[in-house]
Amino acid sequence: MNLILMGAPGAGKGTQSAKISEKWNIPAVSTGDMLRAAVKEGTEMGVKAKSYMDAGQLVPDEVVIGIIKDYLSSDKCKDGFILDGFPRSIPQAEALDAMGVKIDAALSIEVADEKIVERMSGRRVCSCGASYHVVYKAPKTADVCDVCGAALYVRADDAAETVLNRLNTYHATTEPLKDYYAAKGILICVEGREEVSDTTAAVMAALSKFEA
Ligand code: ADP
Ligand code: ZN
Questions:
Q1: Which of 128, 154, 155, 201 is 20 to 30 Å from 183 at the Cα level?
Q2: What pLDDT tens digit does each residue of the chain (212 aa) get?
Q3: Which of 115, 155, 178, 193 is catalytic?
Q4: Could you tell me the strand order of the sheet in which 187-191 lies?
Q5: Ligand 1, from 33, 53, 70, 168: best to mutate by most atoms within 8 Å of Cβ?
Q6: pTM of the model
């Protein structure tokens, strides 16, 4: 199964992507994670990407298209893959088509804007990759990671004003992809629920038709 995961920032793409990856035994890649890693390492690409990310804007298409092209041509994607956060614009979707990869489904996790703002303002992350919410998924000790014990922090682009920018970018540039994939007959919309496990159940039900 070759799957695209869509949804507003904070809709829970990363969480569901990990669950699908585990259940279907196919790799998941997040362009957001890859870009954050590049920023951390201070590579040329990271330096270029950082200002866009901190402002809540999309990194230029050619940058992410390059990353995805490398990734999809690697051997581990031969039995399927999940793209979390790519494509995020019509030119990116067209570039993906031009690579000749067949996409089976574009799954959109739908969450209302008010909910998104509430979720992201409470999000806390750890450098080990773990992610929490002060209300919905609080760590055992406030501001300390359950997994590794390190101090939690607010992702730079989760600042209130940046969240609104990211939502605007989503509606203006990414949401039109729903029509793009609906026209190809492969769009699936799932309602993002308060409980992660409810969302997962809906996602798995929607994908069950691809099971061999
Ligand atoms: P979220 O979905 O919560 O916004 P991500 O981790 O997916 O978080 O993305 C974080 C940031 O990385 C985005 O705001 C954007 O600046 C950049 N980014 C990620 N994927 C793409 C993409 N496909 N095209 C352009 N920019 C991207
Ligand atoms: Zn941790």
A1: 201
A2: 999 999 999 898 998 999 999 999 999 999 999 999 999 999 998 999 999 998 889 999 999 998 899 899 888 888 899 999 999 999 999 999 999 989 999 999 999 999 999 888 899 999 998 989 998 889 999 999 999 999 999 988 888 888 999 999 999 999 999 999 999 999 999 999 988 899 999 999 999 988 86
A3: 155
A4: 28-30, 81-84, 2-7, 105-110, 187-191
A5: 53
A6: 0.87
